[in-house]
Amino acid sequence: MSVDLSVGEARQARDRGGAAVHEAAGPEQGGNRRRRLAERVRRRFPGDPFPIAADREQIDQVLANLATNARYAMPDGGRLTLSVEQDGAFAHFRVADDGQGMGSESARIFEPFFTTRRTGGTGLGLPVAQQIVHRHGGTIYAESTPGRGSVFHFLLPLAESTTNPEALSNGVADAAPRRLLLVEDDEAVAAGLQAVLDVAGHEIVLAINGLDAKQRLAFFRADAVILDIGLPDIDGVALYSELTAVRPGLPVVFSTGHGDASKLQHLLSLPHVAFLQKPYASDELLTQIARVTAQRAGALL
């Protein structure tokens, strides 16, 4: 549900975004660093509110993701500035840091699973932020200079604007919510995908391997399964064969980062089967979910 979020109310979201920087340091980084980072968070906002039609929790998530991204760009501490101002018919948010900055890799930052971190990170924080902004009819982009930091901008239509976020959202965002079984053994990737699917309004149950998937499907009436081919205990294609023995025609979106889709050739001609090669855009995943579940629903009519 969309609600009016005034700039005054957005203050709490930005505060939590700043808190995300404080918390992201983690206990292993030491209390001194956490204090140094927290003390250098600056917030700038106008006194007069201007309402936007938005979901508070989702905009909070965007700010938290951008703040966490900024924290990792400043491993030795730095300044994080969170600000918002009216920009014509839009509310213009900025999340700026004076960290390491980015070079040519900035062209890929909104690609799912792409990350510049040497350790940790799912590569899904920024794609999730982008998805949320786009669902609200807004836009998001970054400006960055190596060694001088980055500024992330996102603009959301004002509530009184003639720009309608629902009208601007793509057809995928308006697809019917589905019950999805997500089969993914990588905990970090699973968490990121759950965030993407949750933002789209889907209900998700996670299985971490083949045995877990079979057990959960016995109690969860999934509309479709999102299935990683490379599972630790069983090949994803073989698992799908076992799942469809119980649930014939179960829609599925296979995915892999290893480039081997040859074992799927006998399945890809089926209308309720799709395949995505990692990395893929979150909109691609949502499109394929909508397609395979629609095909299945049509077949049942």
Please characterize this protein's 3D structure.
With 301 residues, the chain is α/β, with parallel strands linked by helices. The protein folds into two domains: 3-166, Heat Shock Protein 90, CATH 3.30.565.10; 171-300, Response regulator (Rossmann fold), CATH 3.40.50.2300. The protein is 37% helix and 22% strand. It has nine helices and twelve strands. The strands form three sheets. Strands 2-4-5-7-6 form a five-stranded mixed β-sheet. A five-stranded parallel β-sheet has the order 9-8-10-11-12, sandwiched between helices. A two-stranded antiparallel sheet has the order 1-3.
What secondary-structure arrangement, pairings included, does this model have?
Elements (H helix, E strand, L loop, with lengths): L2 E3 L1 H18 L6 H9 L1 E4 L7 E3 L1 H18 L6 E8 L2 E8 L27 H11 L3 E7 L3 E9 L7 H4 L10 E5 L3 H13 L3 E5 L2 H8 L6 E5 L7 H11 L5 E5 L16 E5 L4 H19 L1
Parallel strand pairs: 2-4, 8-9, 8-10, 10-11, 11-12
Antiparallel strand pairs: 1-3, 4-5, 5-7, 6-7
Helix pairs in contact: 1-2, 1-3, 3-4, 4-6, 7-8
Summarize this, please?
It contains nine helices and twelve strands. By secondary structure, it is an alpha/beta fold.
